[in-house]
Design a protein that fits this description.
heterodimer, A: alpha/beta, two-stranded antiparallel ribbon, about 45% helix, B: alpha/beta, 7-stranded mixed beta sheet
């Protein structure tokens, strides 16, 4: 408070003096064991965010974002939870407790969290196989996600789906076939338009998928029928082992919608992503049709757990992104340097998250696998029980829906 | 005066008699209509869609030329005029795109009918049918339903050559998570399409272009707005004792024609119309085989890994095997891409004489 008052009076020497005193006071307070009260933090701050490159748009999202302390803590907590969850999945995969495909999202957290902050829970979202982050932001618990990865009955899809096939209300996966989710997303947007409910659909795909023909078919129909679809290309620079330069004749992914307006967004900054998403959602909701966002982002892991991720890029490159552009560090630094949170508070959150992840992993490793009786269930929806042929003619299995 | 009266009386009596006679005629006519109401397969499909569009506002139709052109084969004639752009949607030529859009709309709770101009073009979109539609309920452990219908003409037409003549019954019939129906006559078409639209799961409806213009008698019950045929039940079209003929779609008609010819020689064929390819009603076939001891499958598609091959395998695995007096015989399309020249095309799919020949062979005649 003293600092603020003196800064208002603009005496630099006094600020240094007061800084010194406050350090002593706070240091003393630390010794005494008390923490700062909420009244000591700034309730909000305004941040300059990177301007978005525009395609067929006269105006872009604002270049300033307002962040409240509450929002900041929420975004931090969500991103850190996602980060720790993915690292735990890495660990479990190496222990062979998770099998098959496992595509990790660490490094890209700002995309999922920023998008979710820019839309409503009643909006719709669909993505491809690097889906654990979105499964979390769309409402599934870490416990249910990890248990699905380990193939247990407590998983969100009862162990039937695995890493690439997790679903929730208004979250349509988790899709394994590259690019197939894009027409699906346009269809979800068509349903929003059909029902007239003012909802939008966020349809995600990667730089690798961006060359799929069905995506251009979707662009055409979405633009033709003015579907409320936000197409988002998460450009993490590599489609599996192929860099964008080796895959695409044009790497301006935000322009590849051609007649669809586009924006290029810094995907490592959760605030930039949030503002861009809000802008895009408003655009769609106003009935102008689809819009395209390219999020420039980066994945720390390889394409999947079978890919060490260093044969097509250097360790230096990965390290550089980690040290200079990590989304979680960036948010943390912003909040601390603007007096919106304290280091202890952040550390406490980290401890809580670590505990949550540990408990979830504990559940995911101890929960039993689905019972064999469930093998043939859920082939159909709302269907009377039926018989399913097993591996031999005498094996007649039961299926209920 | 009395003569006036009597003549008046006669006139009125006559008039009354006329009225009575006319009423009688009307009555007979009604009875006549009752029995003889002819509906083409095309009109049956059209009526089915019209009724379901009216019944449930979540139902809509999309595909190439379905709206303003009235349908490439006129199956959706009049629907766009009645329901408008929102519910009858013309798509660009983008099968993979619009099939995916239809599946996405179904995931969000609408009930789309996705028309493929022919099922040959569905190959462009088959990933959306199988991976996005058929498998999703299972992968999500029942969380995500996909109430969609894929329909369109399947199989051989006339003179359209190899790329436009393939039968996809075996391809779609192979996949769990899909239901596959193949109507033959107008009643089948109405009942199965309505069931498909009301089903909460992905259903593939394999129509036949050559059958669109064929008229069949439809009962009053068959014309009611709530008439549905259960998916997964075959129908015995003609009872018989000597041999069982199992078929689907257009070939059912060929089987009935063959049966009529064979009846003159004292051979009574039992003709079963599968109606549904998946799930296959093997019980009806087994019950028939127990009675006749001879089985012949007839299909328009290729022999290898086909519908007939599946029926053979199932019969062998079940109780009816012990009742067979001869191996099951498959009458199928010739194992070649469909040629163009009429004489070649005619000899590429089963003809009535092929069925008759096979019956006599299996009966050792």
């Amino acid at each position: 408070v003293l600092k603020v008052l003196l800064s208002l009076s603009n005496t630099a020497r006094n600020i240094d003096f007061i800084n010194g005193i406050s350090l002593c006071i706070y240091g003393g307070a630390r010794l005494v064991g008390s923490t700062r009260s909420f009244a000591d933090f700034s309730p909000q701050a305004s941040f300059d965010i990177k301007k978005c490159e525009l395609h067929r748009l006269d105006q872009g999202p604002p270049t300033q974002a307002l962040l409240t302390r509450e929002q900041g803590l929420k975004y931090y907590r969500t991103m850190q939870t996602m980060r720790r969850m993915e690292l735990k999945a890495d660990q479990l995969y190496k222990q062979k407790i998770i099998r098959g495909f496992c595509h990790l999202y660490d490094g890209q957290e700002a995309c999922a969290v920023g998008i979710e902050a820019g839309i409503n829970p009643s909006d719709h979202l669909i993505t491809a196989y690097r889906a654990h982050g979105y499964t979390y932001t769309r409402g599934v618990s870490v416990k249910e996600i990890l248990a699905e990865l380990t193939g247990r009955r407590g998983g969100v899809a009862k162990g039937k789906g695995g890493s690439m096939h997790m679903y929730a209300k208004h979250f349509y996966g988790g899709n394994g076939i590259v690019g197939a989710q894009v027409p699906l997303g346009a269809g979800l947007a068509l349903a929003c338009q059909y029902k007239g409910n003012n909802e939008v659909c966020v349809t995600l795909y990667g730089d690798g998928a961006a060359n799929q023909g069905q995506i251009f078919e979707s662009f055409n129909m979405a633009a033709l029928w003015k579907l409320p679809c936000i197409f988002i290309c998460e450009n993490n620079k590599y489609g599996m082992g192929t860099s964008v330069e080796r895959a695409s004749a044009s790497t301006d992914y935000f322009k590849r919608g051609d007649f669809i307006p586009g924006l290029k967004v810094d995907g490592m900054d959760v605030l930039t992503v949030r503002e861009a998403t809000k802008f895009a959602a408003d655009y769609c909701r106003s009935g102008k049709g689809p819009i395209l966002m390219e999020l420039e982002t980066y994945r720390y892991h390889g394409h999947s757990m079978s890919d060490p991720g260093v044969s097509y890029r250097t360790r230096e490159e990965i390290q550089e992104v980690r040290s200079k552009s990590d989304p979680i560090s960036m948010l943390k630094d912003r909040m601390i340097s603007n007096n919106m949170a304290s280091l202890e508070e952040i550390k406490e959150i980290d401890v809580e998250i670590r505990k949550e992840i540990e408990e979830a992993a504990q559940f995911a490793t101890s929960d039993p696998e689905p019972p064999l009786e469930e093998l043939c269930n859920h082939i159909f929806y709302n269907e009377p029980p039926m018989e399913v042929r097993g591996t031999n003619p005498w094996s007649k299995l039961k299926s209920i829906s | 005066m009395s003569s006036l009266f009597s003549s008046l009386k006669m006139m009125t009596k006559g008039a009354m008699r006329c009225v009575l006679i006319t009423n009688h005629l009307k009555f007979f006519e009604t009875i006549g209509n009752f029995q003889l109401l002819q509906v083409t397969v095309r009109d049956a499909l059209n009526q089915a869609m019209d009724e379901e569009l009216e019944r449930d506002e979540r139902v809509f139709l999309l595909g190439e030329e379905v709206a303003q052109y009235d349908g490439a084969y006129k199956v959706s004639r009049g629907l766009w005029k009645k329901y408008g752009d929102k519910r009858i949607i013309d798509t660009p030529i983008s099968e993979m795109g619009f099939a995916g859009i239809a599946v996405g709309a179904a995931m969000a709770g609408l009930r789309p009918i996705c028309e493929f101009m022919t099922f040959n073009f569905s190959m462009q979109a088959i990933d959306q049918v199988i991976n996005s539609a058929a498998k999703t309920c299972y992968m999500s452990a029942g969380l995500q339903a996909v109430p969609i219908v894929f329909r369109g003409p399947n199989g051989a037409s006339a003179g359209v050559a190899a790329q436009h003549s393939q039968c996809f019954a075996a391809w779609y019939g192979h996949c769990p998570g899909l239901k596959v129906v193949s109507p033959w006559n107008s009643e089948d078409a109405r009942g199965l399409l309505k069931s498909a639209i009301r089903d909460d799961n992905p259903v593939v409806v394999l129509e036949n272009e050559l059958m669109y213009g064929v008229a069949f008698e439809v009962s009053e019950q068959g014309l009611s707005k709530d008439f549905t045929i259960p998916i997964g039940k075959a129908k015995v079209e003609r009872p018989g004792n000597h041999v069982t003929l199992v078929s689907h779609s257009r070939m059912v008609g060929h089987c009935l024609d063959a049966a009529a010819v064979l009846a003159k020689e004292g051979i009574e064929c039992e003709v079963i119309n599968l109606r549904t390819i998946r799930p296959l009603d093997v019980e009806t076939i087994e019950a028939s085989v127990v009675k006749t001891n001879h089985l012949i499958t007839v299909e328009g598609g290729w022999p290898q890994f086909g519908v007939g091959a599946e029926i053979c395998a199932r019969i062998m695995e079940g109780p009816a095997f012990n009742y067979l007096d001869a191996p099951v015989i498959r009458v199928t399309g010739v194992d070649i891409p469909m040629p163009y020249a009429k004489i070649l095309e005619d000899n590429s799919t089963p003809q009535i004489k092929d069925i008759i020949f096979s019956v006599k062979k299996t009966l050792n005649m």
